[in-house]
Structure formats: C-alpha cells, structure tokens
Amino acid sequence: MGYRRGGMRCFGSAAAAAAFGRKRDPARDRRKDRARAPGRQRARRRRLAAAGSQRRRRRPIHRAAARHRLGQHTFAIGSAVRTGVRDGTRQQRSGRRNLRALALAAAPRKDRGMSRALRAVIVDDEPLARARLSRLLGDEREVEVLAEFADGESAVREMPALSPDVVFLDVRMPQMNGFAMLERLPAEPRPLVVFVTAYSEHAVQAFDARAVDYLVKPVAPDRLRDSVERIRRQLAGQASRDDARGRYPERLAVPDGARVRIVAVADIEYVLAQGNYVELKVGGRGLLLRETMAGIRERLDPAQFIRIHRSRIVRLSMVEQVEPYSAGQYVVRMRSGARLTSGRSYRAELRRALGLTPNAEA
Question: Which Gene3D superfamilies does the record match to this protein (predicted)?
C-alpha cells in the first residue's frame, strides 16, 4: 500500500510495478547470500593484502638514528656551519661543539691533555736486541724512544742533552759496561734505569745501583709493560715529592732574643704546645715560636711529622722506640731520650704511620 509524503501518494514496489505494466521481481533468497558471504570476505582480504604489499610504507627516522648516520660521514674541519633564522645562536653553538669534537678526534693522542709521552733511551751493543726493544716500546702507550746507542761512551756523551726519563741499559758491553756508564753520568738530572741483560747474576748489583727494574732477555711484552707502568708510578711519586718540597718550607724564622734564628725543619725533633706558643726542640734546645699547634702542623710535611697528642708533634725519622702505656696510649721514645705520651684519639694515626700491628705490640 502507499503512503503520503509531501502531499503525493507513494506506492510500494509491487504497486509501482503494476502501475507501469511490469511484473514484480522475484524475492531474493537471503540464505544463499549468507552462504556466499564468507567466501567474498576472504577474497576481499586477499585483494587488500596484495594491494598493501605493493605499497611501500616509509618508516620514520628517529633523531638518534639520524644523528648516528650523520656522524658516519666525514666532514671537513674548516667547513662552514649553516645557521637558521629562528634559532641561529643555538645552532652556531652546536656547530662549534661539533667542530671541536672532530678536531679532537683528528688530533694526536698526546695533544689531548694527557700526560706527556715517556721519554726513553736504549743502550745495547747488539743491533737485533736494540731493534726488538725499540719495537716493543713503540707498541706501548705514550712511550717515545729518543735515541739508541751501541756503546756506553757515546751514551755518556750525548744522553744528557736528551734529558730522558728512563734508560734501558745492557750490562755487558765492550769497553764500558752498564755499571761503569752509570758512574760517569751526571748526578742531576739522572734518568731512571732499567737493566736489560741476558744474565741474571747481576740483579743484586743492579738494585744496589737503584735500578727501577731488571729485565732478562728475551724480554716478554707483558713483562716490559709491567716495567713501563712501574716507571710511570715512580715518576709520579717523584713529582709528588717535588711538589711537597715546594709546598712546605725547609726553614723557619724563630725569634731568639734580639736576633732571629733560622732553623732548618730537618733539625726539628719534636714540637710541644706552650700556651700561645709552640716549642721547637732542636738539638736538645727549645725555641719558642708564636704559633698554634694547628698552624705549625700546616707548615710541616705530614710525610715527615705526625701529631701524637693535641699538644705534641714528633718527627717520624727520630722515633726510636714505642711502648704500650695504657688503653689506647703509647710512650714514644725519641732519639734524644725524650719520652712523650700519645693521646687516645691519635692512636690509629700513630699506628698507621709507624706500621704497628697487634703482633708487634704483643
């Protein structure tokens, strides 16, 4: 039946077909459509999958990956840096940092603020031994071989002008052996010595000559590396001692009546607190200096002097004997015969400085 819409009469499909003189289409069988639906859906999914595989999807590039790829290329050190208009200052700073990093990577290792290379000299009469040792030293980090000498005479003549840090010295050489060569070298500045020889019986004499190390030929690379590290540690310790000598005074000016006495710090045996003064014991005599214990302690090298009590400082090299006194206390006997009692709060520092152990105390 029809219905009204907008004042007009509308007919259904059957009425419309009858009005135009046609037959009505047969009704669709929904069951058959439902049976064919799964197959159509599978076909549609296959078409979409085939179309998707043909389209190439562009993957986003993360900033970290972009920076990594950028760093893989080689840039000229002096190339210009392009700056933007909106944030030009920040880009300029970033460009300068990149240029500095590239310049640092291109610079030699010894110019990067590291300690300077270890300067070495080789003295050996055997050409093959010199060549092998020079090659092994060249493989070590920050080692520079300044010169090679085939005999002791030429080494004595030319080596002082080179100022090496260490000399690798053979023992048995014609005309002048290694020990005789050392005796002819100037005392200051004198390089460190490492003996390199095929004979092990000279080791005692080598260490009597204050050698840093004793290497037996053929020298193993690992053994040479250990020797180089030992040389570095000794040079570092020597530099620290030189700094300490420059930091702490070697003499003190002490008023003595109407005069001023210059007292060598090396002659001070111990220091006692006396009110607003300190008393310096020097050669059995006491000299008063207007100074506090904290102030005088700052002026004395802690490697040579130790505070054993709030009112006593002693020189370690002049301590002759230590006796347990009571719980946490000791009686320190000095070389002059003076006996000083330590304080309980200074027990650990005293034991550490003098190397005291429980077995030693027993």
Answer: 3.40.50.2300, LytTr DNA-binding domain
Contact at 8 Å (CB) between 335 and 269?
Answer: yes
- Of 194, 200, 236, residue with least CA distance to 213: 194
Inter-CA distances, 173 with 36, 170, 214, 225, Å: 105, 7, 16, 25
Give yes or no for a contact between 299 and 305, defined as CB atoms under 8 angstroms apart: no
pLDDT above 90 (res 169): yes
Q: Does 95 or 201 have the greater pLDDT score? A: 201
Are 120 and 97 a contacting pair, CB within 8 Å? no
Size of the chain in residues: 362
User: Could you give the CA distance from residue 73 to residue 327 in angstroms, rounded to a whole number?
Assistant: 72
Domains and CATH numbers, the chain: 118-244 (3.40.50.2300), 251-361 (2.40.50.1020)
303 CA to centre of own chain: 25
pLDDT tens digit sequence for 261-283: 888 899 999 999 998 899 999 98
| Tokens, residue 345 | 């709060």
Structure tokens at 297: 């302690």
Q: Please classify residue 171 by burial: count the beta carbons closer than 10 Å to its beta carbon, then call 0-12 exposed, 13-18 middle and 19+ buried.
A: buried
Considering only CA atoms, give the Rg of the chain. 45
Q: CA–CA separation, 95 vs 99, rounded Å?
A: 6
pLDDT tens-digit profile of 297-320? 888 988 889 999 999 999 999 998
